[in-house]
Write a structure and sequence with these properties.
By secondary structure, the chain is of the alpha/beta class. It folds into two domains: 28-156 and 333-342, ATPase, nucleotide binding domain (Nucleotidyltransferase, domain 5); 165-330, ATPase, nucleotide binding domain (Nucleotidyltransferase, domain 5, 2-Layer Sandwich). It contains eleven helices and 13 strands. The protein has helices at 62-65, 79-97, 132-140, 149-161, 219-223, 225-235, 238-243, 247-256, 260-284, 300-311, 334-342, and strands at 37-42, 46-52, 66-73, 103-108, 111-112, 119-122, 127-130, 144-148, 168-174, 178-184, 187-188, 288-292, 324-327. It has a five-stranded mixed sheet. Strand 10 (178-184) and strand 11 (187-188) form a beta hairpin. Helix 4 (149-161) packs across helix 11 (334-342). The protein starts with 36 loop residues before the first strand and ends with a helix. Bound molecules: zinc ion. Zinc ion binds next to loops.
Length: 346
Amino acid sequence: MERTAQRSDARPGAANRPPAPVPAPADDRDVHPPARRIGIDIGGSKIASAAVAAEVTAGADPDDLLRHHRSDPWESRDYEAAVDGLARQVRWLLDELAWPDAAVGVSVAAFLTPDRSGIVEALNLGWRDRPLARDLSVVLDLPVTLHNDANAAVWGEYLLAGSPAEGAFVLLTLGTDVGGGVVVDGRLLTGAHGIAGELGHLTVDPGGQVCVCGAAGCLAVYASGAAIAAGVRAAVPAADLARAGGGAPAVTALARRGDERVLAVVDRAAAAIAAASGQISRVVDHHTLVLGGGAADLGDPLLAAVRRHLSAGVPVGPVRPHPHVRAARAGNRAGVLGAADLAGRR
Ligand SMILES: [Zn+2]
């Protein structure tokens, strides 16, 4: 199943170079995933892994689907050492379950090659031009599929959601950055170069603050977990946050208590999410918008504010139908679940 890795030039800052060859489109619905699947979610601070033996069905409890789910901190960011560590983890799962083999799905925060066999660049890992799927497949002698982390997460959420297969389903992950993913008519959008769904860097305020990506006024500037936390720290004295328990739980507690200083920050994030949803709607007319990532733990105060901004007609007009807005169900298990389910698919 492995194809030769192709270097993708279609990433931010590379617009002047000729586009990389585009492979023929795959159709996920035409293939049958194998019964034994292993998912690995390579995050910036830890690596999660689990085995999945059952079909992922709507309404299922992720804890019932994921076997031997674990999350381990990084030992070394060295690429070769990481491949060895991932292979050890897969072999451990195979041993524990007495499985002769499995298809392996890997989720990673990275720009991928057009055929998704390798990493073009993983900024938070410091990896460039690493044929991860091919290398891991060779070491394990098992099929390995690679997906962008937000794409794997939206697939996991979509499978559990029980949403209509027809139409578009969108996930925004509000973490250190804002990730995104889109499923249309039951098919995960990966794009010509494997990076579809970069929704966190939609422009919601052209004259706004400059984002880490270099553009101004991206959604991530206002709605990432990091942006919300920084906004709260600027608005609420440290002593007040400490009294409320400190850290992210304090922000959630104060928001649910109706603290106006925190709600103003949450409202700013919600307005940005609603503005981005309006842009997304113009392209895919999504029926569902799911909010995941750490900041989604804010729960009702955030969800209600997003719904309020959407209903106020920002920015698509009050007569346009708005998506159903709700919190993610699989939490930080969406990535490993989605990666596992995508294993063995093209
Ligand atoms: Zn940006």
